[in-house]
Amino acid sequence: MKDIKPLIDEIVPSMITLRRRIHSHPEPGFHEFETARKVMQELKKIPNLEIRERVAGTGIIATMGKDKPGPCLALRGDMDCLPIQEKTNKPYASRNTGYMHACGHDGHTACLVGAALVLSAVQDELKGPVKFIFQPSEEFGAGARRLCQESCLENPTVDAIFGLHCYPGKGLRIGEVGVCRGPAMAGSANFKITIHGKGGHAAYPHNCIDPVHIGMQVGIALQSIVSRSTNPMESLVLTVTQFHAGTATNIIPDTAVLEGTFRSLKPELLEKTAERIDRMSKQVAGAFQAEASVDVEKDYPVLMNHEKSTALFEQVAKNVCGIGSVKENYPPLMGCEDFAFYAEQVPGTYWFLGIRPPEMLNYPHCHHPAFDFNDDALRIGMEIHCEIARRFALLWNHQ
């Protein structure tokens, strides 16, 4: 195979420019119109590339070598930003007030565009199709779910999908990558509990069934699901994030509403927790002669890295970064990722790209107003994307 490092060296400067242009004009989920336009400007330079635009609103699916007979690979990059006011003071900082690329999606997009440009120069080496999925709305709205509903993994059918996320934490430095085997990021669900009591004057609580007091007891009781009903060796987080009740200081209301989220790395534990929330809320309310109605809504599934695709990724990453720079069995994260919707449909691997300079012990983390993607990581992200694509057919058939 051709040495692609010179091609990457040639393209990196333009991808840094692209990344910073996207960073300067961040756009929230399903509104990435200008971002998609910038991506299309680059993709149109590539010959023999089949492009679907406006998938799930603003998404782009570009397929290289659609008619090649080998297995089909998909590479995914997300494009949306976060509703955060940027505080980096960089010359290319966000010009859209109240929005910024605080999670590195500008870097993810540039890595994927760069990989497509590099691979366009070695298309003859590809044994099967490669899909480049530029996804809207990862942060909110589960853009991956919509893309799956709009057949992004079909025509041609995807055999495996890979996606990266930059990671600024202490566990990974620039030049290092991490990957989990099995669960990589948590699945989540949301709950809404309505306590139905009996309102009245605050001076006469004995004539009422106070839903505020009962709601506080329910909130405290829910914490025992984690601390006293779940194996300490299993992952579970349950958080009440909202409590709504009342209209005045001297009125006990008829109802109180608690809302929150729970998440786990085990799908079966999510199901059990939903049952426990329902049962405990109703029983605690009943003890105070009130009633509780409980609504639980599944949000994101557990992101499960597939054994076969993860073994393939590890082999490629070690060739690119060196054995010591690939952190296998990297600890999973309790955050959620809609890449999980792809991985429910086809074998998938989601991996972490280190961006922290060795000399910096406290790099701003994702979702922080001082965060910025490290341009020095673009080269590694692009090269791993490219080498997965070039070696996919051979390695996939022998895993």
Task: Give the helix/strand layout.
Layout: H1 5-24, H2 33-43, E1 49-55, E2 59-64, E3 73-78, H3 105-120, E4 130-135, H4 143-149, E5 160-167, E6 177-179, E7 182-185, E8 187-196, E9 200-201, H5 211-227, E10 237-245, E11 251-252, E12 255-264, H6 267-287, E13 291-298, E14 303-305, H7 307-321, E15 326-327, H8 339-345, E16 348-354, H9 378-396
Parallel strand pairs: 3-4, 3-5, 5-16, 6-15
Antiparallel strand pairs: 1-2, 2-4, 6-16, 7-14, 8-12, 8-13, 9-11, 10-12
Describe this structure in words.
This protein is α/β, with parallel strands linked by helices and 399 residues long. It folds into two domains: 5-186 and 301-396, Aminopeptidase (3-Layer(aba) Sandwich), CATH 3.40.630; 187-298, Alpha-Beta Plaits, CATH 3.30.70.360. The chain has helices spanning 5-24, 33-43, 105-120, 143-149, 211-227, 267-287, 307-321, 339-345, 378-396, and strands at 49-55, 59-64, 73-78, 130-135, 160-167, 177-179, 182-185, 187-196, 200-201, 237-245, 251-252, 255-264, 291-298, 303-305, 326-327, 348-354. Strands 1-2-4-3-5-16-6-15 form an eight-stranded mixed β-sheet, sandwiched between helices. Strands 10-12-8-13 form a four-stranded antiparallel β-sheet, covered by helices on one side. Helix 3 (105-120) links the parallel strand 3 and strand 4. The chain is elongated, with a radius of gyration of 24 Å. It starts with a helix and ends with a helix. The mean pLDDT is 97.
